[in-house]
Protein 1
Amino acid sequence: MRYIPNSEAEQAELRKAVGAESIHDLFATVPREVYRDAVPGLPPPLSEIEVRREFGRMAARNATLSDWASFLGGGLYSHHSPAFVSQLLLRGEFLTAYTPYQPEVSQGTLTAIYEFQSHIALLTEMDVANASMYEGASAFVEAVLMAERLTKKKSKVVVSEGVHPEYRACLRTYLANFPFQIVEVPLGEDGRTDSAALANAVDDATFAVGVQSPNFMGVVEDWSAAAACAHAKGALAVGAINEMFSLSALKGPGAAGMDIACGEAASFGVPPSFGGPLVGFLACRDAYKRQIPGRLAGRAFDSEGRPGFCLTLSTREQHIRREKATSNICTNQGLFALAATMTLAALGKQGLKETARQCFAKAEYVKGLIAQIPGPFSVAFSGPTFNEFAVKCGVPVDRVLAELESERILGGVPVRRLAPEETKWHDLLLVAVTERNTREEMDRFASVLRRLS
């Protein structure tokens, strides 16, 4: 929106309406010690043409991702997004994608949401998916709370240490005032959840068992083992996914026996953008759909048999009594769910599989290069990975990153930043490889490590 000026007469009228004697009265709550009456030393005013020209010069100083090689991951991954996705998102019809309460004027939005749900259900191999969540962390919490509603009268959540630290922190925050116990199960030496410890932690009081695959360290978990542990004690198994392209190459949580799948779908058409905005998802088995948070877009037929779309199972507190609501913090994230849907439609099955194949192959190539470097660097865990893995650094991680940045390489995410309380992981660097990385970039990455060894 462009700046809209107002005259002194209009200002006086506005002040009178709000009961303010002067402009200063509007800022009475600002502490006096930080308040300035003097006009700051700004340059003289410029015309709009001159301002645009100056902004252009400033923008030209910014580095773009195309100027750097990126191996950043840790829950957000840099994948290619088809050019038409960002262009179509600019269409005015999509810019107010709030809850489409009136189906007669919202068929386009409802169709897009229905397609998003269909894609998520197919990828996770689940029966039902909702119309998306805010992001992966709160989606994980919603999945755990959903499991509690379904099992009833149980008081314990068992979560793998391989679930993203921010997801676990979000869970602790949400459950802080509930009479629930959270038990975290450590990773084994291979980077997978310790199966014996998981089995010992799950008991008759457990209502949810949460595991992420690939986990925070990039290691592929055994969904089936987690599901078996949960079901043996009458609990529900919750599977979290950060990197959705992995589902194009690995068995989905639904096929492996998990009950609820949740996580982050930003890999499909939503750029990392310094951490957001994002697009979470949640899917489940058909038997549990009435406890799914939020709402679903469903397909119906009129009296003449013509198909149409409408919201159904809208269990938010805006729609039903608060005590009966499944959630009040979810959203249809219309714009970002649409970006994901368009990306999935453009890639198709073959595109998804090819992207996954490239991610896996390139990550294995980098792991092979690191294995050839004598000295302080090694792949931290022996378990199988998809496109991300942890590197154990015998050199301070900050120094490694600084050396990589000197070569215009964003070398990865230090585990210490995401999990500061886990001191055992402070010498680990998460390295993610996607289809965007070239052989030249991967070779340069390894050459810097070799120089430090």
Protein 2
Amino acid sequence: MDIEKAVETLMKLGWSEYESKTYAALVKEGLSTASHIAKNSSVPSNKVYQILDRLSSNGFVNKIQGKGSPTLYVAKPPEEVLSIVKKDFESLVEEAQIALGEIQERQRWREFPHAFTITSRGELTAQLKLLIDRADEEIVLMLDTLSELNNGRLIQLLINKFQEGVKILIITAIQGINDPYEIEVFHKLNPLEIRIADGKFSHITLVVDGTVSLLATYALNSPAGLEKSFVGLLVEDQTFAKLLRKTIVYEWKEATPALRN
């Protein structure tokens, strides 16, 4: 059947089985309730709401809520959804090229370097992703604007790590959470706690498991501040990482928790 082929293909693109079945059923059925989708997709009823919310937050499904009536869901057009998926894959390929290029470059050294520089947004995103992905115990992250986490699926990666039991501390500046775009990212990070530091800063600092750290800053290339040139340093030194972690944890304790409505 066509729907079985669609589910199989979506799973090959990295979707879970339940996500694939739910979206394919919505495309077939049109405007539907969660219970109707559960019945027609073989997705357990106790899972379907969670799956629909996830598809909605990813921009693949529209949710229609009315007073006194069940919430309705409708799939966004497949061509629109697959366009988003294609862009995500192109971004992942670019990050993989950068990361593999770095590995290839390091092979020229007899010993693995203790530190190296970061000179572009793409390289910064790739390194943030690699470091967060390798975290086993703790992620300490301080960044001036939450919107930087929109790059490279960093939001979902942080949530996945939190669900795996990794302790996560995130601090931002007041300018990093004071407009609708930043607030949208803040809500996407739920259930992670975000704290707001006093004063302003313009850097991204990450410490993973107290052993490796990344510190990056940027300069604006246009009056509107839309283009940024990044420069940073990744250091694989436990002493340096522990010192940097101590500084950020102090900021965390002094910072104000950001409250979700």
